[in-house]
Amino acid sequence: MPMRVSAAAVAAQRTLLLRSTRQRPVRFGLRWSSTESSAGEKPAEAPVSLLQRPLGVRERPQAHTKTWEDTRKELMDEETRLKQREHLLKEAGKGYFTDLNATRRHGGKTWVAPNVMIREDRALYFPDISGSRLDTREKTHTTDICRGRVSVIAMLSTRMSEIHVKGFVAPTNGRYLSNSLYQYVQINLQENLLKSWLVSLFLSSIARSVPQQLHSTYLVSNQSMEYVREPLGMVNKHVGYVYLVDENLKVRWAGCGDAKVEETSALEQCTGVLLNRLEKRKKA
Description:
It is built from ten helices and seven strands. It has helices at residues 7-40, 68-76, 78-92, 98-102, 142-146, 159-176, 193-201, 203-209, 229-232, 261-283; strands at 130-133, 139-141, 150-156, 182-189, 218-221, 241-245, 251-256. A seven-stranded mixed β-sheet has the order 2-1-5-4-3-6-7. Strand 3, helix 6 and strand 4 (182-189) form a beta-alpha-beta unit. Helix 6 (159-176) crosses helix 10 (261-283). The protein is globular.
């Protein structure tokens, strides 16, 4: 005889089946949600490392405007051509927004400035950059205005770079601008011809925003920095760069991006050391 199953037993089996089918998608959903959350987490950014090399060029700079004869000599020099070719191949691999996207990581900061100066025997030269003075509009070379004095040189190209630079130099300028052996040089560098032209239209506005005593050392330049950016560590056109240059035109310290407290202090201390040494040599 067929075995009878009570209505109560059938109802109990249905309840168990319903519970099991409801639990499976819930458990699957939880696992999927957890996986999505972990995959969406951004990896931690690696910290910015200390500056690992002296910055600058090996050739002693000269206050000289490049001529066709200079260009011809470069084209005839095989070593120079190979270096330029390597540089162009490297630049060709960069996208249009590479520099801008790089500012999302540490604000574009690529190194942390050292707490001490680069030794004089290891230091390299700051290249010659020409530009128009803010006060007289006359063409001037950094080689001429920096020789024989301790200079803090700020490279400006964007509003962001101005903010970066100010964080480095404010205490140093406040302490040493009254010293005749010290000067603060600002270079408004616009390699793009259109931007350079626009800046030239607003020189009067720039002059009103810059203190009068700094007009003679504020240069507006459109000089190409194509082959000296890498030696100077100027790898991002949107970031501000600061260089401490001694009386012999050698780069003894450098900083970039947002200034750390210890970097600002290091610039002030290193500037003081160079000024003390120069004052002693002047007296001797």
